[in-house]
Amino acid sequence: MSYHWNWGIFFEPNPMGTGTYLDMLLSGLVLTLKTAALAWVIALIFGSVVGVMRTLPSKAATWFGFCWVEFFRNMPLLVQLFLWYFVLPELLPRSAGLWLKQLPNAPFWTAAIGVGFFMSARVAIQLQAGIGSLPRGQRMAATALGLTTVQGYRYVLLPMAFRIILPPLTSEFLNTIKNTAVAITIGLVELTGQARSMQEFSFQVFEAFTAATILYLLVNAVVVTAMRFLERYVAIPGYITGK
Amino acid sequence: MFANLDFDVIRRALPYLFYEGMTFTLTLTGLAALGGLIFGTAIALMRLSGFKILGRIAGVYVDFMRSLPLVLVIFWFYFLVPYIGQWLTGASRPISVGAFASSLITFIMFEAAYFSEIMRAGIQSISRGQPAAANALGLTYAQTMRYVVLPQAFRNMLPVLITQTIVLFQDTSLVYVLSITDFLGAASKVAQRDGRLVEMYLFAAVVYFTISSIASFGVRRLQARIAIIR
């Protein structure tokens, strides 16, 4: 018994009546990108705030940053998604929990928030390292110029730190895209999920997964290229990657 | 908030959770880390060897594995391994591979890509003079690697290797997508049987959190100790 290849399967109509199997995979890709984009925004916002807190002189802020990172880093993403999806609605007051459960697109929002918070811990660590890699003099110079702490971060430290951590941030963004696949477990039918259901409907396992693999590789290539342009665009002459 | 929770369900499920689930998780983590380290070191040596083609193959493999989601890779190997087995053994039909073997192969192949990058950094952190000195002493390439380079590379990279193993420990929970009874799978099965999702998932979260926290605390201490020695 050997495997029956059928590469024409992509152009056959899918049983859901939403066009061909290829359309099915592409809609999965769109959902992957949407989820990843929202998750990345959440990760950047929370990660930046927490990352900055970890570098503040205040003990309380550092401690909060430490707890945040440890909390989101020491649990598998899958468990975190389960906590958001199954546990949170039960622990909230009845009406709020009911509202959460009846939310349309609940897997999408849960996945975006879950992956977003999970990745925020990683962004925070990168940003902390980026700020830490700046010479101490920069912070002091900002203070000496009369900038407040907020202004010091806004105009002196963060613009440099973000440029420095752009390459690791790129890989964290790629990780965000990949991590959305975990949301298959809470019923988000993104690219991996669509490949899986295509396999279940058509029995063409390897065609389905090959297509998904190629799409992931393409997304990767696009992101890496785009980020390289961004790196060059924001580079400071005479500094690290500068011309 | 926690008023109508029944924590006794956890106590009753403890033997199942740990004897079946955690044993599976820990065995898978340990063997996958070991296999990943061995394959990863081989890949790193391929990349750093003088042979262009070997290096290229290793590079493509690493980049390929690292751009795919683990869930997709798990599915890939789950369906692919029976056919590879058929091809290797010349059997007439795809051989059946157990859930454990399938996921072990998956994690070894997947983690090898990540471990190889760590080992590559470790090997490159050894100063050039050392292999040169080994060469001058008359050691062969294999001996140089075995006695001079790899022990130091391994030692320098130990904290990172353990951190990656902690990540691996957490990632093994993804075998859930194949309905395998690892720790989370066991918790989930009890949760669904007894209708106690909140208690079981909270408990699973606490266990994963505790183990990972203790391990990463250990890594930090180890790092501090190594930092003093060097």
TrEMBL record, chain A:
InterPro entries membership: AA_ABC_transptr_permease_3TM, ArtM/GltK/GlnP/TcyL/YhdX-like, MetI-like, MetI-like_sf
PROSITE patterns xrefs: ABC_TM1 (PS50928)
One of the record's GO molecular function terms: transmembrane transporter activity
Residue ranges occupied by any ABC transmembrane type-1 domain in the UniProt entry: 29-227
Main location class: membrane
Segments forming a coiled coil: none
SUPFAM superfamilies given in the database record: MetI-like
A biological process from GO: amino acid transport
Cellular localization per UniProt: Cell inner membrane; Cell membrane
Record-stated family: Belongs to the binding-protein-dependent transport system permease family. HisMQ subfamily.
Protein name: Amino acid ABC transporter permease
The species this protein was found in: Bradyrhizobium hipponense
TrEMBL record, chain B:
Keyword terms, alphabetized: Amino-acid transport, Cell membrane, Membrane, Transmembrane, Transmembrane helix, Transport
Signal peptide: none
SUPFAM superfamilies hit by this protein: MetI-like
One term of GO molecular function: transmembrane transporter activity
UniProt-listed GO biological process terms: amino acid transport
TM region(s), chain numbering: 24-46, 67-89, 95-115, 160-180, 200-219
GO cellular component: ATP-binding cassette (ABC) transporter complex
Primary location group: membrane
Quaternary structure annotation from Swiss-Prot or TrEMBL: The complex is composed of two ATP-binding proteins (GltL), two transmembrane proteins (GltJ and GltK) and a solute-binding protein (GltI).
Name assigned to this protein: Glutamate/aspartate import permease protein GltK
Biological source species: Bradyrhizobium hipponense
